[in-house]
């Protein structure tokens, strides 16, 4: 009998000890237990951990362009709303700086990398480091070349941007009529950086529309610089665009006016504006048609004042949203939304992509497209 009582006492003691151990540092409130169970359930969907609370590294090219500042801010805001931690860094167009920043993010064990590259082909080694560490990579707006480490690509339809610029020139200068009547217009080209894969896509889109007019003389490029190699501008440099434009105006347009500045970037358009003003051109008199891309705040102001004719509006809020959803899907073990599986071969693999649609904006539609959508306010544009 004594042994039975002793055994009963020991059993009660063991159960009590187990209960105290389980409750240490926690609460036994029913709602907490329920919440914990729900958290555990939501954290394991088909055996995959939830992306909530994870860290995303944003490697951006530069803060010298308003566009990249907006992209980073949009993504950071949307990621943080979803519960992610964000490490965001700008490389200031320095390749080695970006390599070091990405290496640092890998060392901090980020769960996913979003990279908008300074040089699309210069990150191969650090991308391999990420892959070896099990960190997925999303290419943001600039395709990462020569690597199998990139999982997906979020961008705008870059060839579509070029086609839109080409068609705008075709329509505004009525090139089909000019072709029939034997009229011609002078044109010079300012294309994107050779280390950015998007730049070639954009150039090809422009030439898809304009090449025939160059061949039959409807469009005349007096500098003779029409190939991508002859017109590309390293690192999208505004200063180089201005210097090139100044040289063209001095060397080829002393006696004849330049009619069209085919610019692939708003920054180039600013440089060309300065060159044209220096050469004595004036708005309303002999100012050429000037294109652009990104619809920066200054570009839209220039469109309103007549210093720039058009730009390509790329709603970075939408691109950021698509990228955030892409990262979420990857970290949750799901398939992200994709609408292109053919165009973007990086030399190693064809990268599944989501392409957002670009929209041309000018003086006639900027209010409807940009102001009404809340991208900029009338107050911002009037300052």
From TrEMBL:
SUPFAM superfamilies from the UniProt entry: Periplasmic binding protein-like I
Entry annotated with the keyword Ribosomal protein: no
GO molecular function: carbohydrate binding
Subcellular location per the Swiss-Prot or TrEMBL entry: Cell envelope
Signal sequence annotation: 1-22
Segments of skewed composition (Polar residues): 26-47
Keywords tagged on the record: Signal
Start and end residues of each Periplasmic binding protein domain: 56-335
InterPro entries per record: Bact_Solute-Bind_Prot2, ChvE-like, Peripla_BP_I, SBP_2_dom
One GO cellular component term noted in the UniProt record for this chain: outer membrane-bounded periplasmic space
Superkingdom: Bacteria
Entries under Gene3D superfamilies matching the protein: 3.40.50.2300
Name of the featured protein: Sugar ABC transporter substrate-binding protein
Natural source organism: Anaerosacchariphilus polymeriproducens
